[in-house]
Amino acid sequence: MKTLTWDSSYTWDDVNIRWGNPSYILEFGDPGYVGPPSTITTPKKGKRTMSNNPIPKNGKVVLAMAEDCYDGCMDHQDEVGLKQTRAPEFGALITALKGNSPTSPTPPGAPAPPPPLPPEPGLIYLYDESKVTTGAAIAALTAKDKEVSQFLSAARTVLVTQLGKAWSPEWVLAGFTDQGSTAVPKSDDDRFTSINTIAIYLSQHPQYEVPAGGPMQEVTYAKAQALHTQLSDARTAVNDAKRDQKAAKKARDAGYAALRRQLIAFVDELTLLLGPDDARWELFGLNVPSNPRAPEPATNLQLSLAGDNRAVAEWTRGTRSDNNRVLIQILGVDADYREYGKSGNSSEIVIKDLPPASTVKVKIIALNGSLEAPTGPEAQITLP
User: Fold this and answer.
1) If you ran DSSP here, which 8-state letter would residue 108 be given?
2) Is this model's pTM higher than 0.85 or not?
3) Residue 32: is it exposed, middle or buried by C-beta count within 10 angstroms (0-12/13-18/19+)?
């Protein structure tokens, strides 16, 4: 033990202090000494496997998996005893993503169904539509910017006869704002500025105008002003389209995230209701945790061009698959299929570095861990 003084570094509530005259503190080996608490190590969290049913992050795969679970809920949710994650919850989230469509015609003699809801696009369609809109807006802007560039080139030809070929401050007033140069501006922002400036210049110098209808291209204040307005509108349309596309993507991704949370809750609830060897897991398109089987084959393989020497392969996920082997065969080069790679938990892949003008066959083999589907879809495409 050691005598305690006021300048000791111990705190008043130390369990080894004994107050008195004198006061002292117990040390290791003294009767009654209390050692420091043992360090508790929190084990690192491992990867959550969800009863051998990992929940993917890829949106398309999440949707395909959720549709399998929804189909199982429609037929077996009461039998299994599901309470929290049932078909209506899945249906609402799936409909939000995919939209709804009119119901099929009623068969003769069957009771009339309730009036169908009007068709309404889902978040996936709205995002895809926004990409098309953005592409069209960019194409329109590119075309209008080209028209502006042609006008500026024609105006330069006209103004050379008035201002001379050598650059001077007068050329800046005419819209050719690059210091020391009379060339048409190279950037689209500079051309946007130039077309407005030259419109003002021509309004102040109508004697330099070339009216429409003659052998030369029209170079007038009215034409320049119209082009400036049209280019401004085209630039605004692109900005608006990009903003809307970003918002549509955010909404779609939020829909996927909500559906993924529903899947996590669904597998958690099934884990409480079914044993690890219960065959009914497969009724919901899921693995039997203690005895996973090979997945169902992938389906609906589609190939499309994706730029120079590239092709995109897209397919429908095979039930219970968590990966895919992508096999390719270049006709006239490969004697048979060879492995290109694996897609991970995704139902699409870009195949790169293909020979120009070649015909390429692709085959997809769905995987469930080390287990392979017995077969898979095939398709071919010819590159330009």
Assistant:
1) T
2) no
3) exposed
Rounded to whole angstroms, the Cα distance separating 322 from 110 reads 41
The token duo for 259 is: 């559906």
Using the structure block, give the residue that is written with the tokens 């209390």.
34
d(CA 165, CA 160): 5
What does the DSSP 8-state code read for residue 219? B
For the stretch 78-82, contacts whose Cβ atoms lie closer than 8 Å and that sit 24 or more positions apart, written own/partner, are: 79/280, 80/270, 80/273, 80/274, 80/280, 81/273, 82/269, 82/270, 82/273
**How is residue 54 written in tokens?**
């990992």
Question: What 3-state DSSP class applies to 366?
Answer: strand
Render each residue's pLDDT in the chain as its tens digit; 384 residues: 666 665 555 555 566 667 666 666 676 666 776 665 543 333 333 333 446 888 989 999 999 999 999 999 999 999 999 999 999 999 999 999 999 865 545 556 656 666 666 678 999 999 999 999 999 999 999 999 999 999 999 999 999 999 999 999 999 999 998 888 899 999 999 999 999 999 999 999 999 999 998 888 999 999 999 999 999 999 999 999 999 999 999 999 999 999 999 999 999 999 999 999 999 999 999 999 999 999 999 999 999 999 899 999 999 999 999 999 999 999 999 999 999 999 988 999 999 999 999 999 999 999 998 899 999 999 999 999
**Cα–chain-centroid distance for residue 192?**
32
For residue 357, CA distances in Å to 163, 308, 309, 360 come to 52, 11, 9, 10
**Structure tokens of 381?**
């495409």
Q: Which residues pair with 300 in a beta bridge?
A: none
d(CA 321, CA 319): 6
H or E segment and range at residue 89:
helix 87-98
Alpha-carbon Rg for the chain in angstroms: 35
Ordered domains of the chain (ranges, CATH): 1-36 (no CATH), 126-241 (no CATH), 299-382 (2.60.40.10)
